[in-house]
Design a protein that fits this description.
The chain has 317 residues and is an alpha/beta fold. The chain has 12 helices and 11 strands.
């Protein structure tokens, strides 16, 4: 029997898988990529009796591949919080999908495991920019404020590592980063003992210093738009800067357009925190767009569609 773990390469995907494999250890083929690499199931060549676990990638964007695997007799366990569309009905499919605006995949796995590895769920939830939900989840752990702040920093750093348009943009390939995380049942031990954390922390600090110096193209009560250059640091920092702006201006929607080296833009959208929805609906109006209610993105927005995007962005919020 073959086993495959298919997961988003951001904080939520890594922390969701970490919880599952701490509870149910197994050797599996890892299938992952950058945060925007979500059409991952098509890479899985499983056969009858094989087991595939899917974490934090849109069922809607992977439906055809999912149906193909199920038809082969593959058993699929699916955890996700993005827009799913129609969910196939098949005895081989075990689905845990919710689209609550502040509940990510790490918390879905935490529910499934009865809170056994809650600290990692808290890290993933902080990484997905659900600070209030992360703090609620952490209450039973009895953490000191300094420890909670450390888990938040780790979540942000893990999430930051997932942004880019090519693997070379990242400090660590997501499968490598997961393997470094895997030995640690306690995320605070990972921070203290694994050199990868220092690399992420220092890279994050350097990139965000540059990102925070950017001036907005538009900054009003309800909308903020930033344009970032075609540089690796900008591609790494774009999503984290969007999250930071969402917290700083909770009544404002934000769009960050990062120039791609070959032309066009990589887009990150954040709904106002006070509203918490609308980002995915806006981004799905464009090819290569998607996401969840509070946060969405477009992988490739052509230059000649910028005006239309801005028009729809301002109308949506």
């Amino acid at each position: 029997m073959g086993c495959y773990d298919v997961f988003n390469g951001d904080a939520d995907g890594i922390c969701a898988l970490q919880q599952l494999r701490l509870a149910e250890p197994r050797d599996a083929v890892l299938v992952t990529g950058m945060k925007r690499d979500i059409s991952l199931l098509q890479r899985v060549q499983a056969g009858p009796g094989d087991e595939v676990t899917v974490l934090d990638i849109s069922l809607d964007r992977n439906r055809d591949a999912l149906v193909r695997l199920l038809a082969k007799g593959v058993h699929v366990q699916y955890f996700d919080h993005h827009f799913p569309g129609a969910i196939p009905s098949n005895p081989g499919l075990d689905v845990h999908v919710e689209t609550i605006s502040d509940k990510g995949t790490s918390l879905l796995v935490d529910d499934h495991l009865g809170g056994r590895f809650r600290a990692w769920a808290v890290v993933g939830t902080f990484g997905d920019n659900f600070d209030a939900a992360a703090r609620r989840a952490a209450r039973p752990l009895g953490l000191e404020e300094a420890q909670l702040t450390a888990l938040r920093e780790l979540g942000i750093c893990l999430n930051y590592n997932g942004y880019g348009v090519r693997i070379e943009d990242l400090h660590f390939a997501p499968d490598d980063l997961y393997r470094r995380v895997r030995p640690y049942a306690n995320p605070l031990d990972f921070m203290a003992e694994e050199d990868a954390f220092a690399t992420l922390r220092d890279g994050y600090a350097s990139d965000m210093t540059r990102a925070r110096a950017l001036k907005p193209e538009l900054a009003g009560e309800r909308h903020g738009i930033f344009v970032l250059p075609a540089e690796p640091w900008a591609r790494r920092a774009s999503g984290t800067l969007a999250n930071e702006l969402a917290h700083a201006f909770p009544q404002r929607a934000h769009a960050l357009l990062t120039r791609r080296p070959e032309g066009g833009f990589l887009v990150s959208v954040r709904a106002p925190l006070a509203v918490g929805e609308g980002a995915d609906e806006l981004c799905r109006q464009f090819p290569t767009g998607g996401g969840r209610k509070a946060a969405g993105g477009i992988n490739r927005l052509p230059d000649d569609v910028i005006d239309e995007f801005v028009k729809r962005f301002t109308a949506a919020f």
